[in-house]
Amino acid sequence: xxxxxxxxFDVDDTLLxxxxxxxxxQGNIAEKLGIELSKEYYETDDKCGxxxxxxxxxxxxxxxxxxxxYHAYYxxxxxxHFEYLLEAYGKVCDVQELVDCYLKSISSSKAIKEPDTLSVxxxxxxxxxxxxxxxxxxxxxxxxxFDFLPYTYKLYISEAIGLIKPTEDFxxxxxxxxxxxxxxxxxxxxxITNDIVGAKSIGMNVxxxxxxxxxxxxxxxxxxxxxxxxxxxQILL
Length: 237
Hints:
Elements: E1 6-9, H1 18-33, H2 39-55, H3 64-89, H4 95-108, H5 117-125, E2 129-134, H6 138-144, E3 154-157, H7 158-161, H8 168-178, E4 185-189, H9 192-200, E5 205-209, E6 224-226, H10 231-236
Parallel strand pairs: 1-2, 1-4, 2-3, 4-5, 5-6
Helix pairs in contact: 1-4, 2-3, 3-4, 4-6
């Protein structure tokens, strides 16, 4: 096995569980608007969200325009999402208030992906320099990562550095800032596109965190694959 100096971790759905954060936000928005929490509400909110997401082309991270304006489009997406939700329920509310409520709700959630996630992260920090690399809003991600930061060497948030995964520029920025070689790093993440393909594009070794047991594409080249966070201890310690 190569001798790594840096372990680079994705955040959402690798270290932190995004679903509880999103679910809490949905509930807080519903309460603010006086809408009963129900299956219908969740389905309606999901439809509004996906409609806005597709219109803002946030899934088109391979496009140069989206790469350069991702965070501006993300804020547009949030506004559109809640405009569509207000329209669906015939409600009136300041859209920015809903955006702020959503971001505050997401920020407050520190739910980890697995029970042993933080303890494994702590153990690894004794041997490696741990790096966090995430697409997200700076103020939101910093608050959510509070428990991990004492064991983290460097934190790279897309909004803060003006670059997004899976671009080569994002990963090259990390290499330049760390002043290290690509063979000294291992990328660990759950996203095939953003984490695995993105890191591989600059020749970095990768570990696919496949906690959901997905069938990966036949042409996907990974150096390691783990199905739970504790597998990292067996591989790296």
